[in-house]
């Protein structure tokens, strides 16, 4: 039995193909609903699955839409917050899930909502007296005060945490809709059925919670992010993509992602049918897309082989995180970090505790590494097409502790692996668990029922534009220093 059929048997049906019914128009005051689909690729939503996701397709066909350029690099944290503040990662001082807290060698810390100092769309709307419902827009743990309600994101450690604003909302939600599902726990697994089944459960519970809040709380602005597409992309991409190097034709999960999108579209249809009227503008957005992941570049293995990274003793043969190894900082020039992109840090005199690079040599050492990284070849001797980027060349500001280089391996078809003990520069086993996809450079943008706005396909949209569009829909100015433009004024 296909998993979509299993959920239909539990009473959840596909959405009909006709235009969803709308609730009667309200008092004419503009409302904005933002439905965020983490990692939803344009090729699925706009093309491959379009005939089977009628609600999203009708929103698109009757509105304005286009591919949405993401940030560099296209990473969930900080991408959603860049979208909602119209600021770049450097201005936010958030360069990924994990960031250096200072120039010591103490490792990296996870980003939280407290790291976000720039005003979000809902911050400004709250100041303007608008009622806001904000659900799981990363990073939103711990939840902050808002004129309305907020629920934490997938970074919430557990249901024992205080994950709502106000705090009392937690008990109300648990009584009304049950335990909130923030994420698929342990989603890096070979148990494909588990990943798919949990994605459905998470999505069902997320939309059940959204329905409850929209039904019981006043709102002018509603925003939620659903993580299901991201978790399935990372877990099952090799099954659904014939061009993936590990794809097996005729595998039992070939249609599993398509099935999930049909189910997700049905949940979206239910929300539209019940809570959207003629005074509501709907935005559907994603923070980035997805693409097949070939393998991983063992960044620190490479840096060690090139003489930039040294250890006080031989490294073990088993795979070991770099922060568990005895680095000889007195002989180390550079080290790196793993993830969907690579971050390279230089050991600079007067900046790091045991810096080895004279400040006067900083730029030529950095340029040397750029040249070497961008000249790398893959396991078959083919040019990888890496990019090693200087933060000051791609971001307006560099707050907190920026990497010295931001490294995109193999046009995002390779990830960065920070651990050592692989015995090679390349690996096809992810050191943090199975993963079949990396993030792609473009997400989606759909805008429906925007008064005076454009229609049809839009070109040149950027993630920064979403904040500006939301504010424009309410007739308000964007945050000072916003990098985007309003899509209402596109084309």
Structure description:
- The protein is α/β, with parallel strands linked by helices.
- It folds into two domains: 3-292 and 439-477, Alkaline Phosphatase, subunit A; 295-434, no CATH class.
- Helices cover 29% and strands 18% of the residues.
- The strands form five sheets. Strands 1, 2, 5, 6, 7, 8, 9, 19, 20 and 21 form a ten-stranded mixed sheet that branches. The chain has a four-stranded antiparallel sheet with strand order 12-13-15-14. A three-stranded mixed sheet has the order 16-11-17.
- Residues 7-28 have low confidence and may be disordered.
Topology:
Blueprint: H1 3-9, E1 31-37, H2 42-48, H3 54-61, E2 64-69, H4 76-85, H5 89-92, E3 98-100, E4 108-110, H6 121-127, E5 132-135, E6 148-151, E7 164-165, H7 168-177, H8 192-216, E8 221-226, H9 228-240, H10 256-275, E9 280-285, E10 289-292, E11 295-298, H11 299-305, E12 334-337, E13 342-346, H12 362-374, E14 387-389, H13 391-394, E15 405-408, E16 414-417, E17 426-427, E18 437-440, E19 442-448, E20 456-457, E21 461-462, H14 465-473
Parallel strand pairs: 1-8, 1-9, 2-20, 2-21, 5-6, 5-8, 11-16
Antiparallel strand pairs: 2-19, 3-4, 6-7, 9-19, 10-18, 11-17, 12-13, 13-15, 14-15
Helix pairs in contact: 8-9, 8-10, 9-10
């Amino acid at each position: 039995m296909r998993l979509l059929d299993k959920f239909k048997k539990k009473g959840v049906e596909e959405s009909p193909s006709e235009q969803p019914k709308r609730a009667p128009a309200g008092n004419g005051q503009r409302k904005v609903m933002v439905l965020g689909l983490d990692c939803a690729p344009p090729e699925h939503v706009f093309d491959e699955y379009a005939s089977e996701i009628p609600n999203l397709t009708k929103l698109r066909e009757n509105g304005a839409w286009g591919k949405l350029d993401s940030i560099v690099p296209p990473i969930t944290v900080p991408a959603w917050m860049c979208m909602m503040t119209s600021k770049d990662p450097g201005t936010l001082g958030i360069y990924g899930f994990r960031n250096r807290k200072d120039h010591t060698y103490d490792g990296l810390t996870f980003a939280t909502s407290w790291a976000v100092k720039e005003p979000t769309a809902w911050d400004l709307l709250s100041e303007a007296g608008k009622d806001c419902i904000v659900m799981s827009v990363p990073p939103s743990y711990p939840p902050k005060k808002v004129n309305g309600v907020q629920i934490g994101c997938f970074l919430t450690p557990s249901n024992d945490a205080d994950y709502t604003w106000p705090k009392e909302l937690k008990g109300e939600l648990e009584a009304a809709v049950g335990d909130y599902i923030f994420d698929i726990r342990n989603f890096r697994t070979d148990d494909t059925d588990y990943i798919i089944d949990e994605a459905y459960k998470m999505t069902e519970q997320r939309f059940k919670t959204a329905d409850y809040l929209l039904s019981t709380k006043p709102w002018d602005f509603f925003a939620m992010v659903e993580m299901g597409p991201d978790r399935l992309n990372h877990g099952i991409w090799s099954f659904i993509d014939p061009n993936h190097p590990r794809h097996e034709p005729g595998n039992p999960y070939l249609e599993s992602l398509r099935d999930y999108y049909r189910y997700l579209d049905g949940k979206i249809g239910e929300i539209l049918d019940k809570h959207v009227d003629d005074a509501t503008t709907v935005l559907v957005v994603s923070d980035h897309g997805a693409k097949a992941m070939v393998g991983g570049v063992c960044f620190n293995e490479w840096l060690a082989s090139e003489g930039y990274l040294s250890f006080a003793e031989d490294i073990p043969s088993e795979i070991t995180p770099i922060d568990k190894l005895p680095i000889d900082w007195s002989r180390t020039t550079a080290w790196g970090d793993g993830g969907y992109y690579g971050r390279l840090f230089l050991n600079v005199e007067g900046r790091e505790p045991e810096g080895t690079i004279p400040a006067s040599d900083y730029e030529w050492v950095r340029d040397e590494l750029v040249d070497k990284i961008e000249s790398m070849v893959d396991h078959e001797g083919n040019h990888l097409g890496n990019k090693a980027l200087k933060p000051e060349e791609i971001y307006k500001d560099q707050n907190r502790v920026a990497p010295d280089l931001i490294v995109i391996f193999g046009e995002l078809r390779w990830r960065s692996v920070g651990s050592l003990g692989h015995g090679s520069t390349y690996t096809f086993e992810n050191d943090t668990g199975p993963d079949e996809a990396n993030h792609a450079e473009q997400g989606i943008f759909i805008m429906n029922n925007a008064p005076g706005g454009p229609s049809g396909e839009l070109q040149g949209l950027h993630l920064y534009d979403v904040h500006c569009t939301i504010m424009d829909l309410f007739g308000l100015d964007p945050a000072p220093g916003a990098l985007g433009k309003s899509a209402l004024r596109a084309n």
